[in-house]
Amino acid sequence: MQLLKDISTSLLEVLNQLPENYYTQQISILDNQTIGQQVRHIIEHWQILVENCDSNSINYAKRKRDISIEQNKQIAISLLKILQQQSNKNDIVLNVVSIDESTIFTSTYYRELDNVKEHIIHHAAIIRMAILFIQTDFNMPANFGYAPSTIAYKQQQCVQ
Fold this sequence. Notes:
There is one protein chain. This protein has helices spanning 2-17, 20-24, 35-52, 67-71, 73-86, 109-134, 148-159; strands at residues 57-59, 93-97, 104-108. The protein is mostly helical. It has a single domain (2-159), classed as Four Helix Bundle (Hemerythrin (Met), subunit A), CATH 1.20.120. Strands 1-2-3 form a 3-stranded mixed β-sheet. Helix 1 packs parallel to helix 6. The longest helix has 26 residues, at 109-134. The radius of gyration is 16 Å and the shape is globular.
């Protein structure tokens, strides 16, 4: 749970210092998607888990696709803070629908939270590239967008 909080707090740090126009700017290396769209995807993926875990059925394909999240950075920041608070739940068994909705498999809340962490890291890496494409000297947290194993590997390489 702490790693999820750390990763999402880094995302909040980036969003708080990100100029508003960067959040909604179409970026050519992202096929004209925006940073806001990446953030919306993160939030909605996380919301699916938190909001549906009590029903024991998770279907990540059933996201809301709320455009206001990708157009308004402050809405995204508020939702991320709420998700950080709501994620502290007991582990339970869940039925998760496959991404193509053809199969249902068994997982647990903690396993799916781990999936959310990986998902945030993946999209944080995309956000990192997008921001640095716009502004190469942006003050990015050092490990933003890197998996813990990559960070450990990089630190090991520096020691040698």
